[in-house]
Every structure is written in C-alpha cells, then in structure tokens.
Amino acid sequence: MDILSLGEKIKKLRKEKNMTLKELAGDRITAAQISHIERDKSHTSHELLDYLSQKLEVSVDYLLETKEMQSRRITDNLILQSEIHIKRGELEKAEELINEILNICKNYNLIDNYAKCNFLLGTINIKKEDYNLVVGNLEKALYYFIKDNDKENIFRCYLNIGKVYIQEAFFKGAITHLGFAEDLLTEGQIEDMDIHKDLYSNLAYSYMKLNDSEKSLYYINKISDIEMQNNIKDEIDMLLLKANNFLKVGKYDDSKECFKRALELLEEEENKSGIANVYLRISDIYKNLGNIDKVLEYSQKAYDINKNSEDKITIKSLSKIVDAYIENKDFEEAKKYCKVALALAIKSKNKCNEYKALKLYSKIHKAQNENTSAIEYLYKCANIVSELGDTKTLAELYIELGELYSNISKEKELEYYHKGVALYKNLEII
Questions:
Q1: Which of 42, 107, 219, 326 could join 36 via S-S bond, C-beta 3.0 to 4.6 A?
Q2: Which tens digit of pLDDT belongs to each residue from 179-219?
Q3: How far apart are the first and last CA of the chain?
Q4: Are 298 and 283 within 8 A, CB to CB?
Q5: Low pLDDT (below 50) residues in the chain
Q6: CA–CA separation, 288 and 207 (whole Å)
Q7: Which pTM was predicted?
C-alpha cells in the first residue's frame, strides 16, 4: 500500500526480482544511470520507460502513475473496503481503516475522500449511538462536501444531522438542518423518492413533537403525494392520519373530507422496504394522537419489512410493538415480541440491544405490578450498561430502581437514589 515515486517503484521492483543495477541496465544504459533514476535524480524517455517496463514485467502505465494518482486509487479502494466492514458490523476494523485513509487524504489533499471518510465515521458513531461524535463527524464532512460542491452528500449530511438531533429530542435543531436538506430537494439535486419520503417523515415527526400540527400535516401530505399514487391502502392510512390531525386542530370540514375520500378508495396492501423508517415515524405520530392500534399496525409494518435483519429499525420496531401491547395490557403478546428482540440481540452479540430487550421485560413486569421481577431485569440491564461504560443510562437505571423499591424497601430505595444522583453529579447534569 506504499505510495511511491517512479524511482522508488523501479528500485522496489528490481530488488523484488533480485536484480543488480547492472543487470537491469543491460546493454541499454549504464548502472550509474539506473541509480540516478532510482533516486529520482534524472528523467526518463518514453523509450527507456518501455525498456524498463519489459525488464521489470510491469506496464508503462504503472510506472507513470503519479503519487497523487496512486493516493486516489488507494483511498478509493480503502473507502470501499471500509464500507463493506460497516455493512458487516465490523465497526472497529472500519474505523481503523478510515483513520489510515484520512492520513493519506491529508498528505495528498484529497478533499472529496477526506469528506467521505468523516461521513463514514459519522455512520459508525450512529451505529454506536455516540451522537456527540456523530455531529462533529458530519459537520466536518459537510464543510468539505461544500468545498467540493457535492450536493448529494451535502444533503445526506444535513439529513443525518437532523436525525441525530431528533434522537436527542432537539427538534428545533433537527428542523433547521432538515430544512437545509429540503432546500437541496427544491433545487432538484436528489431524485431518489425514498430519500424524499425519509426527509418528509422526519420533518413531520419533528413538527408534531413541537405541537405544530399544521406543518406536520403539510409534510405528511408531501409523503402522500410521492408514495400513494399506486398504493391504495397506504393512501387510506395517510388520509386517516391527516383526518385525525385536522380533528386535533379543529378543522372538522377538512377532516370529514379526508374520511370521505378514504372510504371511497379500495384497500390494497403493498409493502416497500424503503419506507420502513417512515412507518416508524407515522407510528410515533399516531402515538401522539393516542391511537394505539395504529401505532401497533405501523410498527408491525416496519418490523415485517425488516424482520430477517438485525438492524436498528428491527429493534426499534419491536420496542414500539412491545410498548403498544403494554398499553393495551396484552402482556403475553408483549413478552412474545420481547423474546424475539432478546434472541436477535444475543445472536448478533449486540450488548446495547440486549440491554434494550431486557429493559422491555422490566417494563412489562412493572406494568403488571410485578416489581420484584422488574427489579431483577433492571439489575441485568445495569450490569450490561456498566460494561458498556454508559454512565448516564446507568444513572437513569439507578433512579428507576429506587422508584421500584419505594414500596418494597426504603433502605434500597434511598441506596439507588443516592447512586443515581451521585452519577448525575459526576456528569454535571445536576
């Protein structure tokens, strides 16, 4: 993976073939001339390059490839390898490779690949759920994508920063960055309709969380315009969602019109993997509307699309399904989906997802007033979170343990409250 000058290449190839300077020179030139070429002290004619390529059994193109060209080829290949590692979940290998690429990019001023590497680091940290690092990675990538005028990747940065802010419940910041992404859509830079739907669903969700139903409806309608042209069932669902939103803001005539149009349409089911995340956003909006049956329906849709996968959407879908069954007091169904979530986490050796599944078990037992069992699962959660080094989550678990102990043991209640508060103080949260 060395990046070599012409002379360095010739010297390396000669040594690999155990040739002396004189043997390489042959009758064509002198050994001294070869020595000068290997030290990049003299230039070579095309005829001489042709001679050397034959003696060393390489192409003239290989010998003529500059350091800049080599750095481009090498970093392109390494970026592809790192993307493969990320898809396989080999995040440490990917990160190690990306740091190697970044050094090459700095040395040879490869702005576009430097930006891509920072974007990939952001992708890795999203998977690790280290959102503070994600924003830094994506903002650095964004700076260089803007310098390179790479509109598609500028869009991807804004979209992903917006998603991170949603995860952190910073919805105003999310809307700002998602709005920048929308500006690029307006310019016609992005043609993939699934990406449009992803953006609009996140905007709809953010506005809903800020209690701006008008804006939320606006973006739901934009999703409808894209997705529902050939999908009658989803059009019905979207019309019902709009109808409920209109009811919420007191627009009864508009609401009735949506219900009327929905009733006129035939039902036809069609699932697409590209809208799994949109389904989750819609389920969140229905949760705000208090329609648990619809929450369950759309969470189940998202799960059905991804159930053969072990990705984040699958775990999130299962979590929402379990929450919906708890809300409906159908605890047996909730446990069934918990079991699926835990099995997936153990199979993929994902400790973070294992913690989430165990936390759901605790939530079910708490809803059934089985506090002793809920506590047992929280202990397991605390052990995993402690191993992962997530101090903030551990503090939250201690506070929750204190709450559960409130009717069992005052001593234990105080013990875990103190533990939680101590960790919060260390984090300077309180």
A1: 42
A2: 999 998 877 666 677 788 889 989 999 998 998 888 988 98
A3: 51
A4: yes
A5: 230, 266-274, 430
A6: 12
A7: 0.55
**Of residues 47, 19, 57, the one with CA closest to residue 38:** 19
Question: Which amino acid appears at position 33 of this protein?
Answer: Q
* pLDDT confidence of residue 178: 94
pLDDT in tens, 131-184: 889 999 999 999 999 988 888 899 999 999 999 999 889 999 999 999 999 998
> What percent of the chain is predicted at pLDDT more than 90?
26
* Contact indicator for 216, 207 with CB cutoff of 8 Å: yes
Q: Does residue 382 contact residue 401 with C-beta atoms inside 8 Å?
A: yes
